[in-house]
Amino acid sequence: MQFGIFSVGDVTPDPTTGRTPTERERIKAMVAIALKAEEVGLDVFATGEHHNPPFVPSSPTTMLGYVAARTEKLILSTSTTLITTNDPVKIAEDFAMLQHLADGRVDLMMGRGNTGPVYPWFGQDIREGINLAIENYALLYRLWREDVVNWEGKFRTPLQGFTSTPRPLDGVPPFVWHGSIRSPEIAEQAAYYGDGFFHNNIFWPADHTKRMVELYRSRYAHYGHGTPEQAIVGLGGHVFMRRNSQDAVREFRPYFDVAPVYGHGPSLEDFTDQTPLTVGSPQQVIEKTLAFREYAGDYQRQLFLVDHAGLPLKTVLEQLDMLGEEVVPVLRKEFASRRPAGVPQAPTHQSLLAAASKGVTVE
């Protein structure tokens, strides 16, 4: 099972000091967080993609390419690649290039995005979000698997005898996760292609996540990719830790109360009770994360959000130390001991290449 962190790259004032980091500071902080993730033994760093303030990660492959040059083991991913407003041809080119530079340590997560104004900035209509996701990914899928593509659709100009370059490393495309919070159509899409399904898992209660994951698992089996238990599932989660749980609550409360994705809504206590958000001791994070298995089944990737809402970089790096030293080693052991035989590990470039060399279809 893979463990890592994902960042949305928000530039948010620190509510305890009133200071807002510069864009440069936030970008450099994200790089520092990625490097720390490898240092403490995590497996994955994933960045979001946003094209509007107050966010900075508008060019994920630029950042991930830089991180690739400074790491050796870390899997470089996205927590959203906008399949709706990006050209599939450019996605194919950019991530194949990143694959080569990072020696295969690359996968990505497709998402529609939920910021309405971004669509017209890129010449699209948010009301076509689902249709764009379906058509654009169908083209991307072919671009990585066919040397010459002839294609015509609704949302971009036709392609005639087109070859995307560079070709995927070793002829094996990056593994794709389809991320969705609430759209069953995206769970269906992930199942149809035999790709992974990632549920953000930081807003919604467990019963909603359970329904989405079960839909994906059942449709994965329907399309003949394996049993429901063999479907590839990833989950998010938001944590804030201190040795003493009361200290964690006291320190995090001012950040939670004004956070871009949480603030001015339910109380911190209600949110931690009703959603996967965990604010407390490392042991509480372990216990709540292990409980995800009760409604999502045995899954392959767990990513934590740790740098949201204006938290200082020093505090975020302390969170990573606790994850690496106290939380993830226990989670690795416990999840492994409970995993039934036949449940696959998270795909990597090496495992996909090995499957392809044996003549197994690489989804």
Give a description of the structure:
By secondary structure, the protein is of the alpha/beta class. The protein has helices at residues 23-39, 60-69, 88-101, 118-121, 129-145, 184-193, 206-222, 245-258, 268-274, 282-296, 313-338, 349-357, and strands at 2-7, 44-47, 75-78, 81-82, 107-111, 149-151, 159-162, 175-179, 196-199, 233-235, 239-241, 278-280, 301-304. It is 44% helix and 14% strand. Strands 3-2-1-13-10-9-8-5-4 form a 9-stranded parallel beta sheet, with helices on one face. A two-stranded antiparallel ribbon has the order 6-7. Strands 11-12 form a two-stranded parallel ribbon. It starts with a strand and ends in a 6-residue tail after the last helix. The mean pLDDT is 94. It has 12 helices and 13 strands. Residues 9-20 have a biased composition (Low complexity). It comes from Streptomyces plumbiresistens. Keywords: Monooxygenase, Oxidoreductase. Residues 1-21, 339-363 are annotated as: Disordered. Pfam families: Bac_luciferase.
Q: Report the mean per-residue pLDDT as an integer.
A: 94
What percentage of amino acids are in beta strands? 5-15%
Please provide the ordered H/E string of secondary-structure elements: EHEHEEHEHHEEEHEHEEHHEHEHH
* Strands ordered across the widest β-sheet: 3-2-1-13-10-9-8-5-4
Low-confidence stretches: none
Q: Judging from the principal axes of the Cα atoms, what is the shape? A: globular
Based on DSSP secondary structure assignment, what is the total number of beta strands? 13
Number of continuous helical runs: 12
Query: What Rg do the Cα atoms give?
Result: 20 Å
| Spatial separation of the terminal alpha carbons | 19 Å
How much helix, percentage-wise, in residues? 40-55%
Q: Largest sheet, described in full?
A: 9 strands, parallel
What structural class do you assign from the helix and strand content? alpha/beta
